[in-house]
Known about the structure:
eight-stranded antiparallel beta sheet, Methylamine Dehydrogenase, Chain H, Thrombin, subunit H, elongated, five-stranded antiparallel beta sheet, 49% strand
Amino acid sequence: YGSKGAFLLSLDQSSLKVLKTLSQSQVILATVHDIDGDNLDDIVLVYTEASKFFVQIIKQTGKNQFAMGFKGSLDARPQALSLGDLNRDGIADIALALDVAQKSLGVFISTGADTYQGLKTFGGVENPTYVQIGEFTGDGKNDIVLAKKGSSVVTVFPVVDDSGLPSAGVNTTVKIGDKAALSISFLMKVEPATQGQPDALILADAQLNSMITLTAGTGGNMQVLSEVMPTGISPARVAKGDLDGDGIADMALLCPGSNMVQIYYGTANQRFAEGYSFYGGASTKDITLAYLTGAQSPDIVTLDFAKQVLLVLSPDSNSEPGRNFLGEHMIRIGDEPLGIGSGRFVKPLQAFPNNKDLAVLLKDPTGEGNVFFIAVDEQTGLPLYKTAWFSAKVQSPVGLIVADLDKNGYDDILVPSQSQGANNTPTMGRLLLREGISHERPALLQRTDPTTGEDVNNGFSPGIAPSVAVVADLKREGTKPGVLDLAVLAKYPHPTQSGQWVLLFQPYVGQGDGTFVIQEGTYYRVPDEKGPSSLYASRLAGTANLDVVMSDYQSNEFTVFYATGLGFFKANEGEAKSYAVGRGPKKVVAEYLDGELGTLDDPLPDLVFLLENDIAIVYASEKVGSEVSYAPPTVLGHQGQGPVDLAVKDINGDGYADIVVLDKQGAVYVYLNLAKRQFSSPYLFQTGLSPQEMTVADLDADGCMDIATADSGGKTVTILQALSCGGK
């Protein structure tokens, strides 16, 4: 329904068709309710014509058969509508929140089948925006509640006799925890599972991003029934129904500020337990439950206003009824994520021994970095189970690096930062993980750093502000195969000028226990006019050694440090090679684009750059001695509006490396490698609000690459699970 009327639609395959035009007027409110108890849902519309407002009941007389019923007129614009039996005659009455300062509660009381008294109005709340009929005083009779967006007060109008007319309102100031509600965004009645108990009232606060449950108090007041339930950002609408078939009402909550739908399952005592969350659309205005796909449980349907489409979350037939849905899973973090990585961080579940967990970088109010771990969920095999967080013990974190630094089978975390190391505080966070008691909590390894004498999990200081780093087996020492080393871009004291600092590319040698020692005798002094943005290690020259490439955001170029063996590089002045690449390179990835991965078709890896507004590909041309020549950059022609992250992985399983781009507008673009230096038009997948970073990995161990994004705007993580990857 909307400005052009109201329509009854049905789902036919993947398209909608109009079954019946209900109204061609400007419809402002609509609801579905079995008004007369005949087990057929009826429709109530509120619409406007010629500056007047009307309520229209449309009775269902048979399957998809409707007849016009009662029509009532109003002088004030209704803001909300609720139906319920106020005079106990078995027929639903109508309550309306009217957009006026006085006499703002409007009521139509039934007098028989399809007949109603004229509108009666009552005062008590100025310009209310919400209304709900329910048994809220504990006397067995339905009452009326009004509330106003932006207010912390709900007003209960008790109905004390069978006239159905309310008495004077009683105000209750609602508190979310210890704070008064700031912006009530909806009211919803929850019926009791036990007969004789009063209804509960669920309300959400769009500024505090929380919900709370109220129940009948004394003298018309209401009291808190449940603990505060945190929600996604800006909870706006809710749909109620029995999702899991246990006879108790559940909720699907729409949070447009996070692009998210949250599921809450009702319990016998009118409380709720949080279930999974899903992507609900980028400009979603409404939500409902409906049986569209023929499943045993209802589907969840959201309305995307900008795209004018319905998004349907249908029940997963491989899960318990109504307990999981087919859609993009989201995880409510509650804080703004700065980075994300995947790996093994907790003890694996027996049913999912090879599935991956997630690590999410957060920053607390003091500026210190924290790492939050999300474990594999026992129902889906995806990382959805929120566990615990550990402090990274470093200020001004900028990202995280995942690697098994001590080769114990559990991935560890490094946190680069912009920290200046004041008061001898660390400039890089480090968390070494080990097997814990269960998958429900990660466990830290207890070890002392021989260089600092500190707990290894207290971090360390590879220079000042080591905000750019790479971990790889740079030394490739035969006595320590596979031991990971570290290279950073950080500030160090000037060798001759006291009090001055220089920016260096500096390698560190890994000791195999998660600690590092500086590699003396090899470094590169970054000229003052440069602004390096990322490092990547790869066999750029086709030798056994890993070379390092550095992208430079400020000078619009990249620099290659060729390895000479045992962790040393051609990094002296004149040895490092620099090449122009395009405007504002933010990240570089090296991968074999010309041939199938794992073959000898392509002996040299190519370079892919995340630019300010596009993607550049620099193909390795030919080997020249111990170095490589590169072709001029080729621009991909990214179709997004602001690329923020880049990965190069075989997404469709055809053996060729594809390009994956995360865009700040809330989308992932996948450009498939068609061979012969050609790429497909992008495949587009939506994410949470304002994503910052992504990890591309086989999260569910099915052989296909999945994608998880850290969404700073929505304070969520979104998981794009690959459904197939058979070379298509």
